[in-house]
Design goal:
transferase; Farnesyl Diphosphate Synthase; mainly alpha; isoprene biosynthesis
Length: 446
């Protein structure tokens, strides 16, 4: 369950919208973003507080929502149990492992975004939901007695169901779709569950790659059960998620969610195998590489699930595109905030370049901003900070370049862009909740 401390109310007092200015073409895309935020700050305001206030006032809700979770609390309260039904296996260890994360009091940010956006989409008048993608069986029946919940292939083929066999099938048939609640369609609720399954599978795999026990307070799956079981459980989650994706029976939604799985893998490979070009545009190229990696690792799942929710609602193309852009900008902001936390932790530690903390921090925007001002940082990156004084020097160079502050401003720029996309939705409590959620994610800690 999301802790209320995470979900502080949107800060008031500033109504001026950040105006992006044209930057010199030789500046990096990140410098452009940072200078745009700074250019709108009043003399007596700090850049951080001014930009937060600017972003939060882009959309004026009828009524502020202090706790976005309250908008979809009913749906969120059954999330874990519904996922458990999707993951059913008669193998006790696999069952226990697969549900390990879902039973914890995690934040579940991704399904919260999908469900809250789905609620906001329900406020669109029915006459404007004429794209042809709306599944009428999804709307008219909560029990799906028409057969929409049925498996696409015979049970004997899918699950080796045989009444003459004593053993239960290891992978049991899935339960029906959740029922419609307060305008959120059954397939949108299932979408939220699928998104959390994909995300959790990526956590199980990632923690083995980067020794995530050092990143999270909760005992990780690999430390609790071992690396082999963590890998197998992640594969099982992806397999069951893929079945659930197919049963949504919407070709574009299936394509969107399927590509998020490959995007997660591509993003992880990009992080493991960072490359630096050696020419006059090296800094700009690495910035673009960083943003693309950030999209693949985090923003792809958020953006494509937001687009999928809009498609399932039957919304028009401009709304569908706006929802995608909202998720994209929010996802990039989300990952940049994680990178800020990683660098802050590294900066206050005595970690060597080979430590996992340093490896994550040295591939983030604060270091790239330092490179923009100090060319020698490029050489340090290429040799992977292997010289004895590299770690000490990079901390000082990032400080002199105000790399951490510029990265915070970059996150705020993406937050503002995410909120701006919400203008395609009607004013409602759900839309206000999305604004509040977007701004409060800026202050998140791991």
């Amino acid at each position: 369950m999301i802790k209320h401390s995470l979900l502080r109310s949107v800060r008031p007092h500033c109504s001026k919208v950040v105006q992006l200015t044209l930057a010199h073409r030789n500046k990096s895309i990140l410098s452009h973003a940072a200078s745009a935020v700074l250019s709108s700050v009043k003399p007596f305001e700090s850049p951080l507080s001014a930009a937060i206030n600017n972003a939060s006032k882009l959309i004026q809700p009828q009524k502020p929502v202090d706790d976005p979770f309250s908008i979809v609390s009913k749906e969120m309260s059954t999330l874990a149990s519904n996922i458990g039904k999707l993951l059913g296996s008669s193998h006790p260890t696999l069952n226990k492992f697969a549900m390990y994360y879902f039973k914890s009091e995690g934040k579940h940010i991704r399904p919260l975004i999908v469900l809250t956006l789905s609620k906001a989409l329900s406020e669109i008048p029915l006459a404007e939901k004429d794209s042809g993608a709306r599944d009428e069986s999804d709307v008219k029946s909560s029990s799906f007695s028409s057969g929409a919940e049925d498996d696409l292939s015979p049970l004997a083929i899918l699950h080796k169901v045989n009444p003459d066999v004593v053993l239960n099938p290891l992978s049991r048939p899935m339960d029906d779709f959740p029922s419609e609640t307060d305008g959120i369609l059954p397939k949108q609720r299932r979408l939220a569950e699928i998104v959390e399954m994909i995300h959790t599978a990526s956590l199980l795999h990632d923690e083995i790659i980067d020794n995530a026990a050092a990143k999270r307070v909760l005992s990780t799956g690999s430390t609790a059960f071992g690396n082999k079981m963590a890998i197998l459980a992640g594969d099982f989650l992806l397999g069951r998620a893929s079945v659930a994706i197919a049963r949504l029976k919407n070709a574009e939604v299936i394509e969107l969610l399927s590509t998020t799985i490959s995007n997660l893998v591509e993003g992880e490979f990009m992080q493991l195998d960072d490359t630096s070009v050696e020419n006059s545009d090296a800094n700009r190229a690495d910035f673009e590489y960083y943003i693309h990696r950030t999209y693949l690792k985090t923003a792809s799942l958020m953006s494509k699930s937001c687009r999928a929710s809009a498609l399932l609602s039957g919304a028009r193309e401009n709304v569908v595109d706006g929802c995608y852009q909202f998720g994209r900008n929010l996802g990039i902001c989300f990952q940049i905030v994680d990178d800020i936390n990683d660098y802050a932790k590294f900066n206050s530690s005595s970690a060597a370049a080979s430590d996992s903390v340093a490896k994550r921090a040295l591939k983030t925007a604060p270091v790239l901003f330092a490179w923009e001002k100090f060319p020698q940082v490029g050489d340090m990156i290429r040799r992977q900070f292997s010289h004895p004084n590299d770690i000490k020097e990079i901390k000082e160079l990032v400080k002199q370049a105000q790399g951490l502050e510029k990265t915070k401003e970059l996150a705020l720029k993406y937050s503002k862009d995410a909120i701006d996309q919400l203008k395609v939705l009607p004013d409602s409590e759900a839309r206000s909740a999305l604004v509040s959620l977007t701004t409060t994610l800026l202050d998140r800690q791991r």
